[in-house]
Design a protein that fits this description.
Four copies of one chain form a homotetramer.
Chain A (H helix, E strand, L loop, with lengths): L2 E6 L4 H10 L5 E7 L8 H4 L11 E2 L11 E4 L5 H8 L5 E4 L9 H8 L6 H4 L2 E3 L2 H10 L2 E3 L3 H15 L9 E6 L14 H4 L4 E2 L8 H13 L6 E6 L6 E8 L2 H11 L6 E3 L17 E7 L5 E8 L3 H15 L16
Chain lengths: 342, 342, 342, 342
């Protein structure tokens, strides 16, 4: 019998991507979809690409009957999410796509998100939702906090290297390029087509991007000491895709071996042969991550490049991996869609 | 047990799209992939987005053991295709993506393709591969000729209207906009990113585009008289998607009713409510067609707009529909992937 | 001595384009720039691509000293424009980029713009700002109303044909494709990069687009009878450029001859050799119009295709032509910039 | 009287850009245009965006009368260029856009370009064509070698910092994003629209990109010691524009002050206020460079970001600056065109 899923905040891109993935999942049924301003509309009105599906209309959260729901996917904005999840029945499983339950430390949350956390008691039971590294905890968790899409990309490139201590922890630079859908469907001048197409620029330069909170937490935990990376995201004139170009000091062959070994059994992570490196185009629309390692001409320096689709593996695909784990399904069910190229 | 499929010409976009779709089909196995110049390479080298799949390496056609093949999908260039199919075992089922077996009339073929047809005997047993209209013939056919992607789009908009004689047959204009992947992976200056992005232009203007051969054949057959439409394709700065804006003279409400009734039971064709019209973005990567009808301010004139993905519904998705029909599978198997938006 | 120009509404794309063009004009000086919500900011903040210029800061309209101004370019939204122009000193020359003074008939204005016109007295002295056709009136006008960008493109393709009565006036179809900058810098969901890139759709289908008001007025005036064209605009995933594909019934050679003769002396309008047709990419960033004519396979039918840059020739370049004429400068001064390709 | 300019290799993008810029230069006349395979065609056929200009038809180099030429702009491919320039009259001024005369050391040339240099005697008289740094030498040079477009961008960000010794010379990383027109108009599969749009990838990773030859030569010369930077270029889905994100170790305020002081008098280089950083979109089609400096959260680290248009400031605009200097014109003549945005 199909698991019953409610998606809160279904009028945004991650909500729509969740519906897209669930549409061909054999054991899931969408029983509720919510949107705040767009409540009352059908999903076909809000996202015409989903009009062939038989979906419940968008309602307000208060109008959802959660007793008929097995798991909630929460695709709400930061800060809103914690309020909403706090008000849900206490035994309901939750996969949260916002930043609200990613940071374990209340002070860190306040530092990066500019306000105190309102549900620290729930934070204690939340598991960081990177399935490749928290798989067993996720299986039994009630609340899973999916990671930031940039944070996921950087971590896929770096976690095994930090754990294995094969790189200099004090000189890590993540130069990241991201498609625009990561910024969501919000009405901002800098997200207009005329402002974005045919060019690029950096943003959040100098150590102010919020995903650094996740990098700091996770990398420091792995290293057993404080690790602070440099991180510069850039906006690409493309809708989907993140490419992280990571500069590390360490032996390139060892770096490659370490990543290859770490991901040997992972169904979604492909480590390329040494010297090859990925393109975002080759993971578009899929849950796969491609990682490459190249040695620099200067000995002892390696470039690690990781590519994924921010809406799939970086958000809703990761969420569905977590949903599968939490509901006892095979982790890859519904997620083996091949990338869409060109 | 899985059906065994060989794909000839797998290094082009339609070949790759066929692999993408078969990758999540439950009952198909790819047993051979061919490419001429790229024989010897792996599919991962030629199309890195497929590297997570366990696929046979590319070989030359002569190196394929066709005794172990149930059906051949032929994604070769026009003219090459007829030679290759002629040389295949005579009992092998074939779905051809080229133009070689679309036109029943030898003179028409020579007119539109500039050379005599070399396998007219095979042409006699080929079925025109538009499944919504030739479904029963396709089930029992040995050779099915998938249609041109533009030809498919125009026909979805017009066939029911011509059959039902609800429009003026002498005043039909198809103004079509197509993404660039329809032109294939060939090295032409006008297909370079720098030449194509950020603008548009028409091509094949004035009644010289080859897909007119298909329009003329099919529409005249339906009407029982000669029908010649006007057709102007334009190249879009987008990879996938065709939008056909079709100008007809007829009662808009009747036009809408006729299309709605014709497609009521079709799993892949969605007729929008009267007055609404589609976007190519909402069918991208999927096998769906969206069709809308709007009445003009001038009475007795309607605009029919149809959208599909040229690589999926316009080519390899249509091919897989045909493969399913020919091998006794449910027609929709493996084809219900939701569109990828944004 | 340089003419003193004020630009009202300088924070939008047409305002910025006006500044771009004036930047290399030898005899113009920008003495005031206004913006409503962005008053107080510098132009470099609002449009960093203009930061190398020494420009006045943005102020509110009330803070402009119009006694030091020779001519006002008004790039304000429809409806706002008429209020503002009404309040300006009565002897000040005005070039208006809004729709407010394009339609001579009060009822027509109300029909297409949904509200009564508030300055019909000024309308009486306004000249329709298509310089190739109203040149002499523009020289002596106080108020010139630049045309809509789509309206300009369609008129360049059709005016000489209607004047010369070489086409069927009852069967004209304009299928138009426009870049997104024509929609301005406003915050609308459908103008986001993620919603617009990589695809196309029609809008204003069926005879409801406001530029039809201009087509109706001008074409009927030329023909001496009512002329109502069909008009379907489509949104392109490109920032600049309009391509109008116009279907007419008439002799293609006569159509071509008529256009060639009409534009023989025009500095900005290039009629291509018979059978060739233009691309928007080849006029980008320039004040040129390229027009081509192709004969259809069906005798007595021609396709006329016109391309221009909506922000330059379709808006601010046209405005500068008018400014030049009104201030006694050579019409082409500052406007001979070659298109930017690729 | 106008200077007479010949452009060799006018069928490529840098050749066309040269024509675009010269089109509005008051004191230059194009007297010859050459192309090898396209000889015999008009420029309007090869580049329709230039069809409004009265230009000589394309001829083969052997058919040019160089006695009527004051200066040759050579836009030929690497290796070809040295052969052609060697055969020109020895008193003819030459601005070369290829890599052939950039590297002073024969061994370096052979290392980076894979073959021995065939005209080292001419190399001795060639001046490195970065006008902001070699201005006086350029005025009197016979041969000027314009720099690589990536090399120019990196040098604008770094030269003053290396000269002033305010950064660690052993830890410089240039992560660069470039538009596709930098790769020229050549027919390569990876330059097709379908392969490039909607994504990004790195290339020349690990210290193998040829522009490193220029970085090594120039930075080592400035430092008086060997300097080897890390350099990773990425291909953007955009036609024009380079953004170099440069990671340095040094005091951010000092870095900013050094750059601001260095470029205070430069007409084309704009140093942004501390903490701001540029977009490629804001220099498109222009000869301007925008440079920004941001301090990292980790003390002693700065990010320098430089943006320019690879075809203008990175190639043909730089060339015209050099032409102006060599012919006694004001350096900025014809080059003050404002960027085209959006």
């Amino acid at each position: 019998m199909a698991h019953k899923i409610a998606i809160l905040g279904a009028s945004g891109y991650t909500g729509a991507e969740m519906v897209r993935l669930l549409a061909t999942h054999p054991n899931m049924e969408i029983t509720a979809l919510t949107a705040d301003r767009k409540a009352g509309q059908t999903m076909a009105e809000v996202f015409p690409h989903l009009r062939h599906l038989d979906l419940p209309a968008l309602v307000k959260i208060d109008d959802v009957d959660f007793t008929a729901v097995d798991l909630v996917v929460c695709a709400l904005p930061h800060a809103t999410s914690q309020q909403v999840i706090k008000a849900l029945p206490r035994d309901l499983k939750v996969v949260d796509l916002s930043a609200d339950f990613r940071l374990r430390d209340a002070a860190a949350y306040e530092k990066w998100y500019g306000q105190p956390h309102a549900a620290m008691d729930l934070q204690a039971e939340a598991v960081y939702g990177l399935p490749e590294f928290y798989r067993e905890d996720i299986r039994t968790a009630r609340i899973v906090a999916c990671t930031g899409c940039n944070a996921a990309t950087g971590q896929f490139a770096l976690r095994p290297l930090i754990s294995a201590r094969v790189i200099d922890l004090d000189d890590i630079i993540i130069d990241l390029k991201t498609g625009v859908s990561g910024a969501g469907r919000s009405l901002k001048e800098n997200l207009l087509h005329a402002e974005l197409s045919e060019g690029t620029h950096a943003y959040g330069v100098g150590g102010v991007h919020r995903h650094l909170g996740e990098f700091d937490q996770e990398f420091s935990l792995l290293a057993g000491r404080k690790v602070e990376v440099q991180f510069t995201p850039h906006l690409l004139p493309a809708n989907r895709g993140i490419l992280a170009t990571v500069y590390v000091k360490g032996d390139p062959a060892v770096v490659h071996d370490t990543l290859t070994a770490a991901y040997a059994e992972e169904p979604f992570i492909v480590t390329l042969p040494f010297g090859e490196h990925p393109s975002t185009r080759h993971v578009r629309g899929s849950n796969f991550v491609h990682i490459g390692v190249v040695g620099d001409r200067r000995p002892g320096r390696a470039i690690v490049i990781a590519a994924l689709d921010n809406l799939t593996k970086g958000s809703s695909g990761m969420a569905l991996q977590n949903v599968n784990l939490m509901l006892g399904e095979a982790e890859t069910t519904g997620l083996m869609l091949a990338p869409v190229f060109p």
